[in-house]
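So, is this right?
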Amino acid sequence: MLRIASGARAQTRLLAGRGMRYSTAPEQEDLRKRLTSELKLAMKGKDTIKSTTIRSVLSEVYTADKAQPSPLPATGIVSILRKAVARRVSTESATQFEQASRSDLAEKERTEADFLQTFIPPLLSEAEIDRRLSEVIAKTDNKKNIGVIFKQFYAVVDRSSVDTDLVAARAKALVTA
């Protein structure tokens, strides 16, 4: 049974019997709802690959929720999804399976990664990063202090929406130019 709390907790929902709380912020609710609805669809369709993949991600999200007093924001969920994709494709699982001549398991990891990619919003383009960095640099007094530029840039742009290595490279290029 779902009940809505009153008073100062009007923005928090309580799951009766479990005592779990989560914020009703639209973007967070949207991503959580999307993950759980996809899980339900996968379970109804008896798609074990999708259901186990979503369950593993939701498990990480719930663990992160319990580790801090407030619920995990949508950016944290996106971060968990990006890490899950990286774990499955580039650095760990798929390449190790390929080295062990287990192409079937490597293909499974790639399929899971492709499925998880559908939940991740696209990264900002290099042109958009350049534009926003230029705005930040124009407002900054000390143009050579890259740390201040990063701080102001990330105050405007969410870290989960950019490739941080690309931002660092572009910021250094714009500062030296």
